[in-house]
Amino acid sequence: MPCRRRAARPENIMDENMPKTLSRNLAARSARRRICALAAALSIVLPCTVVAAARVTVLHTNDTHAHIDDGYVSFSEIAAEKARLEAAGESVILADAGDHVQGTPLGGYDSGRSVIDIMNAAGYDVATLGNHEFDYGVPALFDNIRRASFRYACCNFIRRKTLDDPGTLVLPSYVVVTAGAARVAFVGVTTPATLVSARPSTFLDASGGWRAYDFISGERGEALYAAVQKAVDEAAAQADCTVVVGHLGVSPDSAGCRSIDVIAHTTNFVAFIDGHSHSLYTGARVRNAAGRDVVLAQSGCHLGILGFLTFEDGRCVAAGTVFPRGERNPEVARLEEQLSDAVNRQLGERVAVAPADICSCAPGTADRLVRREGCSAGDFAADAAWWYAKRHGFACDMALINGGNVRSDIPAGDVTLKTLRTVQPFGGDIGIVEVNGRDILDALEFGAKTAGDAEFGGFLQVAGLRYAVDAAVKSSVQVDAAGTWVAGPSNGVYRVRDVEVYDRSKGKFVPLDLHGVYRVAGSAFTLMEGGDGFAMFRSAKKIENGMATDYLVLAEYAKAFKRGASGLPSLSSSASPLSELAGYPLAYEKPAGAGRIAIVGRAGAVAD
Question: Is residue 324 domain-shared with residue 417, that is, in the same domain?
């Protein structure tokens, strides 16, 4: 089962990535919210016999990640819910806060085109860009924007014609949607971290010498705040109320460019529909630059829930979650089934059987272990790259896989190509580089900058390597405004320690030699393209680029396991081809994996 946040009651708004100040404010209001959320839910679920002249409900989604056939809410149900509310006399707008075309094999099937068709049929009115809208490249991005019958807005995505060009906006900074008697302006904004969370080469001009596409941000977010304020002020003159729909999130690693930061430094809008951090909060209130409350909402991820905000006469009067009644729009359902069937035909080959879940998330939750500590799916993906490289003539000392590239568990039971493409849906390449030990240490340190506190897509899962992270040591790794690594810790104190490399000839782990040269397999996104900000590898010697597509590497590794009672390979640790290595840690049956990454220095942490 792909890791995703299960549908929750409206009051369940806490999230591990939410800053403590916001969490405390929300906790203080929880008793009141339980009453208000129930009233809000009733206001949206029950038909209205009297509707205020300027009343409008905004249904909103975010980070749906192409979960067409396995979400807890489907697009066809959303379409039916919107139609039902409109038939009851409500004015309804449907909005999305980004990351809708990528994340499962259904998105990758045709670079998101079918997802856009489904959203068109579902009745979306407005959306902003998420970082994963760029995964198929800029030409595909523009194709999808043109294909959409809904409108996109983004106030900080710019294009430059020359190196010195300050840039012009690619999309409208806002759009105004009229629903009944209400006019609502939506200002779009996208995380500047897209520059490193998508392939950095995506944004370069043809020569590769400078960024032809960029995101307004500033060193500490000042330019981003100014861009949002300018767009909001322009939009407010055209509408009854103004809403920001943003793909920013609340994760600490985005500090300065989070939704809460933007709200705190701007004014003149009443609500912020958020995305990116996969958080779940409904109707949280955050003070803006004028000291007034702004409603902040985000609906988890993967179509776990459908959020709503209701506005009357320019004020947000209700917020909560909607649980559709199971009715489906027939045309949208047809498109969903058509896409799902096509992908199943393409990727339906049975590859292996998993006797237990191989986990990227904590069991039964959407807590993405793979982005902050060791886990069995991270071990499996890194082991696959390490094994595959040696199998094809490139003996590597280790493998590094960024946690953001592992998007799902491998559920117990039959494992198909679709299962493995769901684990690694981006179709990225596995590459090989040679680097020195200092670069490896810096990469581990950069990847672990938020370990113990929050998620980071660049957190490194490893094979042929083990290390510890002292979460009590505050990270001082140096980065630029885009979040790209610049240098090691400014105070010289590394939170990563006890780094050891598996020596095949000795059958044991030995200390990392900072002056030694190592051959490393892993995500080309990380090792060769500087993805997630791994700039320490820019000087690496490239040994092999594009050796194979990542999910096919998973498949070949899976096929090399010993066969079980089913006649197919059994993905148990004892059946792995790596089980022949003396002293090499394997524990795919355990959610936390084999303990190759120890998080120490925090409450409840264990060394191994």
Answer: no
Could you report the per-residue pLDDT of 218-258, keeping only the tens digit for each?
A: 988 999 999 999 999 999 999 999 999 999 999 988 899 99
532: left (phi over 0), alpha (psi -120 to 50) or beta: left
Q: For residue 175, give both structure tokens.
A: 């759009």
Phi, psi for 45 (deg, rounded to 5): -85, -35
Q: Are 467 and 498 in contact (CB under 8 A)?
A: yes
- What are the residue ranges of helices labelled H in 18-90? 20-28, 30-45, 75-87
Domain that holds residue 120: 20-45+54-340
Q: What pTM was computed for the model?
A: 0.86
What sign does the CA torsion over 349, 352, 357, 358 have? negative
Rg (CA), the chain: 24
| Secondary structure (3-state) at 181 | coil
Q: How many residues does the chain have?
A: 608
Q: Looking at residue 402, what is its pLDDT?
A: 97
Please tell me the total count of domains within the chain.
2
Q: Give exposure, 549-581, as e/b (b: 16+ Cβ within 10 Å).
A: bbbbbbbebbebbeeeeeebbbbbbebbebeee
One domain for residues 305 and 372: no
Exposure on the CB side of residue 382, measured as CA atoms within 13 A: 33
592 has a pLDDT exceeding 50: yes
Q: Residue 231: what pLDDT?
A: 98
Residue 457 within a domain: yes
Residue with the bigger pLDDT between 45 and 552: it is 552
376-394, pLDDT tens digit by residue? Answer: 999 999 999 999 999 999 9
